[in-house]
Amino acid sequence: MSMKGRHTAIQAVFHAVLIAMAVITLYPLLFLLFNSFKSNNEILNTPIAPPTTFTFDYILNAASQIHFLSSIWITFVVTFCSILLLVVVSSLAAWAMVRSKTKLAEFMYLLFTAAMLVPFQALMYPLINIFEKMGLKNLPGLIIMYGGFGISMSIFLYHGFVKGVPASLEEAALIDGANLFQMFFKVVFPLMKSTTVTVIVINAMWIWNDYLLPFLVIGNKQGVKTLTLELYFAKLQSGQYGNPWELIFPAVFVTIIPIILLYIVLQKNIISGVVDGAVKA
Questions:
Q1: How far is CA 271 from the centre of its chain?
Q2: What is the pLDDT, as a whole number, of residue 255?
Q3: H/E run at residue 148
Q4: Residue 244 in 3-state DSSP?
Q5: Rounded to an integer, what distance in angstroms lies between the CA atom of residue 70 and that of residue 63?
Q6: Domains of the chain, residue spans
Q7: How many Cβ atoms from other residues are within 10 Å of residue 65's Cβ?
Q8: Average pLDDT along the chain
Q9: What are phi and psi of 90, to 5 degrees?
Q10: Which long-range contacts (CB under 8 A, 24 or more apart) does 251-255 make?
């Protein structure tokens, strides 16, 4: 076989592997989409086949069962406030650690990096107990917890990027009369766009889809449930005699649509943000 033929064969195998990986990755979403338009009997009889008729009745019923409008608003508020807290605090902290050049700053960075290795399950019961005693077992407390658990990864990404930002830019801003906060938010922070998008998407996907922490903090409180909690309790109330698949599939479908749209809109910045933040770290 000639060199050109061998190269073509390798490319064909490579593309076949990529196509197979794409099918494996997308199949669960296709499976979810198909079964969101089926009745319970049709799902049980033909789970992997397309629906015989497309009707939005099951999706509308699921949206009603999980109180979609109120729960998506609560989930959005929790996610937005948590992300805002994470971005502001972690970007400032990472910048301060890089620029201070002290042993304390290095120790703090190592401490935050090591915190990424501590699983949430090891801390959840003491944490919930402390927050309950402080009167923070509510939505503000949930936002603070998300900020605490997400800050380590965010600082890690920002820290790596800030190390590549020339200090001369900040010195020029100071000479022009800017104070520290003006220098950071008008000069340094705009340069962090790709890393900031990465921090937003990674943490938003986690917070939006999280079930355990809202369950421990909010529980079954009326009117303040996130989408995942509404989905769980709707399934619990409707599934005494088995799994109500005609509710579960469309409910999961409408729950994940917003975060998928966010990923699609911001995907071009994610890879560059991860590379900028991790490689230089």
A1: 15
A2: 87
A3: helix 139-162
A4: coil
A5: 10
A6: 3-35, 57-278
A7: 19
A8: 85
A9: -70, -35
A10: 251/62, 251/63, 251/65, 251/66, 252/32, 252/36, 253/32, 253/33, 253/36, 253/59, 253/62, 254/59, 254/62, 254/63, 254/66, 254/68, 255/66, 255/227, 255/228, 255/231
Distance from C-alpha of 81 to C-alpha of 113, rounded to nearest angstrom: 23
CATH superfamily of 57-278: MetI-like (1.10.3720.10)
Strand runs labelled E in 129-220: none
Is pTM beyond 0.70? Reply is yes
What confidence category does residue 277 fall into, taking pLDDT thresholds of 50, 70 and 90? very low
- Nearest of 184, 115, 186 to residue 153 by alpha carbon: 115
Q: What tokens were used for 210?
A: 């999280």
Structure tokens at 25: 């990755």
Handedness of CA 281, 92, 195, 226 (dihedral sign): positive
pLDDT at 227 over 80: yes
Q: How far is the CA of 140 from the CAs of 74, 78, 228, in angstroms?
A: 12, 8, 18
